[in-house]
C-alpha cells in the first residue's frame, strides 16, 4: 500500500550533479522625495509631488508591466491601511533602471469625513 511499482531496476533513479546558483541583482524602489504643503483645507485640493528612485543593484525590467503607487496621508511615519487616509493611486508603466527615478505631481482632496484629524505626514 502506498508504494509506486516501477519497472525492473528502476527503483534507484538518483543522480547528483553540482549546480552553481548566483544571486540576482535586485531593484529597490524607495520614495526619495516628497513635496507637499504644510497645511491643507478639508474639501479643497492640494498638490503634492514625490520621486521614486531605484536604489537597488538591479533594474526593474521594461517587461515588468505596471505597478501602483498608493497615496496615503498618515499621522506618523508608519503606514496603517486601516486607519491612514487613502487618497488614490498612480499607475506606473515600464521599467526603472538602477539609480534612475521618476517624479509624479498630483492634486488630491481631503475628504470631509477627515475632520478631527490634526497633522499628517507624507
Describe the structure.
It is built from no helices and 5 strands. 0% of the residues lie in helices and 35% in strands. It has one domain: Sandwich (Immunoglobulin-like). The termini are far apart. A 3-stranded antiparallel β-sheet has the order 1-2-5, with no helix packed on it. The protein is elongated, with a radius of gyration of 25 Å. The C terminus is likely disordered. It is mainly beta and 122 residues long.
Quick rundown:
The chain has 122 residues and is an all-beta fold. It has strands spanning 29-35, 45-54, 66-73, 85-93, 101-109.
What key phrases describe this protein's structure?
single chain, 122 residues, mainly beta, Immunoglobulin-like, three-stranded antiparallel beta sheet, two-stranded antiparallel ribbon, 5 strands
List the helices and strands and how they pair.
Blueprint: E1 29-35, E2 45-54, E3 66-73, E4 85-93, E5 101-109
Antiparallel strand pairs: 1-2, 2-5, 3-4
